[in-house]
Amino acid sequence: xxxxxxxxxxxxxxxxxxxxxxxxxxxxxxxxxxxxxxxxxxxxxxxxxxxxxxxxxxxxxxxxxxxxxxxxxxxxxxxxxxxxxxxxxxxxxxxxxxxxxxxxxxxxxxxxxxxxxxxxxxxxxxxxxxxxxxxxxxxxxxxxxxxxxxxxxxxxxxxxxxxxxxxxxxxxxxxxxxxxxxxxxxxxxxxxxxxxxxxxxxxxxxxxxxxxxxxxxxxxxxxxxxxxxxxxxxxxxxxxxxxxxxxxxxxxxxxxxxxxxxxxxxxxxxxxxxxxxxxxxxxxxxxxxxxxxxx
Length: 295
Ligand SMILES: [Zn+2]
Description:
Elements: H1 4-18, E1 23-28, H2 39-46, E2 50-57, E3 60-66, H3 70-77, E4 88-94, E5 100-105, E6 114-120, E7 124-129, E8 136-140, H4 143-146, H5 161-168, H6 175-180, H7 190-199, H8 213-232, E9 275-279, E10 282-286
Antiparallel strand pairs: 1-6, 2-3, 3-4, 4-8, 5-7, 6-7, 9-10
Helix pairs in contact: 1-8, 5-8, 7-8
Zinc ion (ZN) binds at residues 267, 269-270, 272, 287, 289-290.
């Protein structure tokens, strides 16, 4: 499942490929992928709009649009389907479990797993491919409001060790489920939660309010380090059918993972066999010697 580094890899490539381009429309043959728009509203809502920036918050892409081409918009509204024309709007894309984006020339044979397709000026198509269909696309007038339930982005400069320490204090929750909670901190998923906890020598079942100040600083540093390194490696791809970037290429982070999906292999710090446990229904990997659970 794409986490912050994989989504950030998309953000960078989309920024290079989409900024300055204008949408000619959109179509969707599986409307549940559009939780807040009808396929018709999406088509009208992007028509004539130009991409001015591509941002990210946690696992959400924020594609900022400025509109629009009044002639194009009038043309569609003339058919009685348009709403009020927004000067600025955002496409929020969540890749879910298996989502990917690809830009292809129009006329490229249809992809049965691409249920949301945007047409761009010049004839290209931006296709959102998602075999497992957990991904979502939203066209909104206010991205900040739409994403207000998210906690701070895990790579945001304002999310400091001190801020993290304050967040942990008084929370009687186990560390791993807390790190996965996107309203606590946004962007961390199963892989990087396990890697960060191992790097900081903390047990995933440890309680947040028992974490000592020095340990909180270590965990914050571990999260930043693991995410930053994975962005540099362009994310994690486990299997040929797994995560692929905007160009269809796999990420290279797997070889640097220390515990995730390494059950039975020796911990590189102490040689103890990595163990797998289930925490909050999620597969979890630890070194039982480096990550002791304090009672
Ligand atoms: Zn160890």
